[in-house]
Amino acid sequence: MFEWQKLVNQSASEWSGLRLPVRNRLAAACRHLLSEKKLQLADIMRMSEVSRPQASLDIRLIMNRAPGLMEYDRASKCYRLLVKKPA
Length: 87
Hints:
Elements: H1 20-36, E1 38-39, H2 41-48, H3 52-65, E2 70-73, E3 78-81
Antiparallel strand pairs: 1-3, 2-3
């Protein structure tokens, strides 16, 4: 089972090798994804005050470093959480 809990922490092993501001953005994006069950580029842009291309890179980083966490939903134009929180 994927350990989603650790992704909300900026010191998670998935974020190793990244600068602190990037780790903070990715952890914040994962917190949002896990609480709302979806994530859009606009969410990252709003939360972190970054450009659209930077938000897109952040999404790609999350998908590469935490495969199986989310997938793109074309119908709603957002990324959906794939894993379930443990009860």
